[in-house]
Amino acid sequence: EALVRWIHPEKGMVSPADFIPVFEKNGFITHLDHFVWERTCAQLREWIDEGLDVVPISVNLSRLDIYDPDLVGVLTRLIEGYRIPQDLLKLEITESAYVESPEQLIETVGELQRLGFIIEMDDFGSGYSSLNTLKDVPVDILKIDLAFLSGDNAGRGGNILQSVIRMARWLELPVIAE
Q1: What SS3 class is residue 60?
Q2: pLDDT in tens, 55-107
Q3: Given Cys at both, which of 79, 105, 132, 173 links 84, Cβ 3.0 to 4.6 Å?
Q4: Residue 12's beta-bridge partner residues?
Q5: Conformation bin of residue 116: beta by default, left when phi > 0, alpha when psi is -120 to 50
Q6: For residue 165, how far is the Cα from the chain centroid?
Q7: Using CB atoms within 10 A of its CB, is residue 139 exposed (0-12), middle (13-18) or buried (19+)?
Q8: Distances (CA, A) of 81 to 41, 46, 76, 93
Q9: Largest Cα–Cα separation, the chain
């Protein structure tokens, strides 16, 4: 997964948990996402040109990206420009994106899948819409949130995690536990 880190000249490493919410509020997150997508495609192209065995890299799509009417065009232009097969750029969408605009999310995900992109539902289980999201959004991979195995109720969380994995198998969805 391509992850962004901010190394501030005075403060040192700034956690994404600190700056991502600010960027989501002020709209800068879309610029950051585009930068990460571009760098990821460039890196994939470099590895391909070097003849290396290339594995897919996941990139995040923020909730604001889903509202962009040109999202599909932006991603298509990137993979075409860098001559990257769609299945090398996996797209992660957080479960919480479903809450704000389920119809738009379902439509966008469907269009991206038709073009050959692999869609991962990120942070599954961190929101309250999990089962409806699984029912309605056509994702290819389920990434389960780490929260199931942390805290005082880790044993109970483990039982829930086992149930989610069984359910994903019934739906023929690969599962990744973060």
Answers
A1: strand
A2: 999 999 988 898 889 999 999 999 999 999 999 999 998 777 777 777 888 88
A3: 79
A4: 8
A5: left
A6: 19
A7: buried
A8: 9, 13, 8, 23
A9: 50
